[in-house]
Design goal:
single chain, about 250 residues, alpha+beta, OB fold (Dihydrolipoamide Acetyltransferase, E2P), de novo design (two linked rop proteins), five-stranded mixed barrel, three-stranded antiparallel beta sheet, 9 helices, about 20% strand, elongated, binds zinc ion
């Protein structure tokens, strides 16, 4: 409680009354924080362009015990995402998706430095021109992993057979990873991951987003990986993601 000064990402900024804004920050040292930015609507002097989506800022805010909203005193821009947002529609969708996931998974006033670094490194990789579908998958799978939602890929959850020997594996809704024998015939709706997709997930644990997504190859665009990540994320959050359908190009059909 009291004054805090910490590096943060702006995840969202919504108008509050005539003059103010409510800003959602994901801060390195304070986790997710919602704060009122006084006069941010009326005067651009105080906050300038610092409240744009996914700007990395040095934020100074005041928190009081038992009060939900902090008071944002100042935001000094460390790195803007504005050029990236403007570079293409696809990039803008990706940033909205990152922000929505970061907001959904970060915890109120609880620091998650690794999750913070993930967002930072994925944005850097996006600025460096990495492929967007690959970055979306990278961010999703690491988000799942950091929140304990990505099962171990070593052995089949039922028969303990080594999954690296399997031609395909089947992640179930119950967080099991099954070999073909244990999965049985199944229904048409189940998710199947081939060897290349499993290797992609394994590689993700060792390699940064730039290396993974600069020249990613076709595996990162696999429908199986996309469906699997989405099912786990939306299952955990118990809701659909607003920004996903734009990123996936489903925008005009829903
Ligand atoms: Zn098995």
């Amino acid at each position: 409680m009291g004054w805090k000064r910490t590096e943060s990402f702006v995840l969202r900024s919504i108008p509050l009354g005539e003059t103010d804004r409510i800003v959602t920050l994901f801060s390195r040292e304070g986790g997710k924080v919602r704060a009122v930015a006084k006069h941010a609507r009326r005067s651009r002097k105080r906050f300038g362009g610092s409240l744009e989506l996914l700007t990395r800022v040095q934020a100074r805010y005041f928190e009081r015990e038992g009060v939900e909203l902090a008071r944002l005193e100042s935001c000094e821009i460390l790195e803007s995402s504005f050029d990236l947002l403007q570079s293409s529609l696809e990039a803008a969708y990706l940033l909205s998706y990152f922000a929505e996931l970061a907001e959904a998974f970060s915890r109120e006033r609880e620091p998650e430095p690794t999750f913070f670094r993930l967002l930072n490194s994925c944005l850097a990789a996006a600025r460096a021109g990495s492929e967007i579908p690959c970055l979306a998958r990278y961010f999703e799978f690491w988000t799942l992993r950091l929140h304990g939602l990505l099962p171990d890929l070593q052995n089949c959850s039922r028969c303990a057979r080594e999954l690296r020997e399997c031609h395909s594996i089947y992640p179930t809704q119950e967080k099991e990873m099954l070999c073909g024998r244990c999965a049985g015939a199944g229904n048409g709706d189940r998710i199947q991951l081939g060897k290349a997709e499993v290797m992609w997930i394994r590689r993700l644990h060792r390699v940064g987003p730039l290396e993974m997504c600069k020249n990613p190859g076709s595996v990162s665009r696999s429908a199986g990986l996309a469906r699997y990540a989405r099912r786990e994320i939306e299952g955990y959050l118990e809701r659909r993601l607003r920004s996903y359908r734009f990123l996936a190009g489903e925008g005009s059909y829903e």
